[in-house]
Design brief:
5 helices; mainly alpha; two-stranded antiparallel ribbon; 85 residues; 5% strand
């Protein structure tokens, strides 16, 4: 049974988090986890998206979790964002 905070049910279509953790975390917190780890389909609304324009050596979950400013500081050879650094 789900309470008013969204606890008691997972809102993910796929997840690397243990089921009990998914059920105990409030849905608004659950949606803050990058979709590469816990897919709630909320990356677009939370801003947790990758800004890479090519093949990146950075794991997808980290790409989605980093703030855009930090992501763009990573050298192009490692994580191409088109910023030319």
């Amino acid at each position: 049974m789900q309470n008013e905070k969204g606890q008691g049910a997972s809102h993910a279509t796929s997840s690397q988090l243990p089921g009990k953790v998914q059920e105990k975390v409030p849905s608004d917190i659950e949606k803050q986890v990058p979709d590469a780890l816990h897919d709630t389909g909320s990356n677009a609304e939370t801003g947790k998206v990758s800004h890479a324009i090519g093949a990146s050596k950075v794991p997808q979950a980290i790409q989605e979790g980093l703030p855009e400013k930090v992501e763009r500081l990573v050298p192009e050879a490692i994580h191409p964002t088109g910023d030319g650094k």
